[in-house]
Amino acid sequence: MVAYLEIQVSQIPFLLPMENIQEVLYIAASLVVPVTAMPSSVLGLLSHHSRIYWTLDLGKVLGLSPLVHLPKYAVTILNMGEEIMAIASEEINSIHQISEPIQALPADTLPHLIPYLDGYIHSWMVLNPQSILKSLISNYDSVTNLAN
Description:
Layout: E1 2-9, E2 12-17, E3 21-28, E4 32-33, E5 42-48, E6 51-57, H1 58-61, E7 72-80, E8 83-89, E9 91-98, E10 117-121, E11 124-127, H2 129-139
Parallel strand pairs: 2-11, 6-8
Antiparallel strand pairs: 1-2, 1-9, 3-7, 4-5, 5-6, 7-8, 10-11
């Protein structure tokens, strides 16, 4: 059995592997402080438990609808060893224990999502947290220390 967190982005349910999740929380949108000269997918900085996290708009990263005019964000703090980041989405739905393996993506998967996905299980697409971070770093030279 593998544990996954189900989150909602642009009204689409996605799974994140629990092994990469440090914490989940709901925060007031006003707690994320915008930073100038950053890519539009970077919402800003979040201070939580005496740490500061770059916070990304997961909808914007995935090429879906960005978070707009929400009073609160569903934030998932991802820990990938040396790299830690926060991703904001609309909802944190639930945790699933799944025994089935990840399947290859169907041919009709939206092309802009493919670089961020490991595959699918049942009706959920499985996100790859490392791909989200790597894509941001490689696509934006101005974000060389995104995970620090």
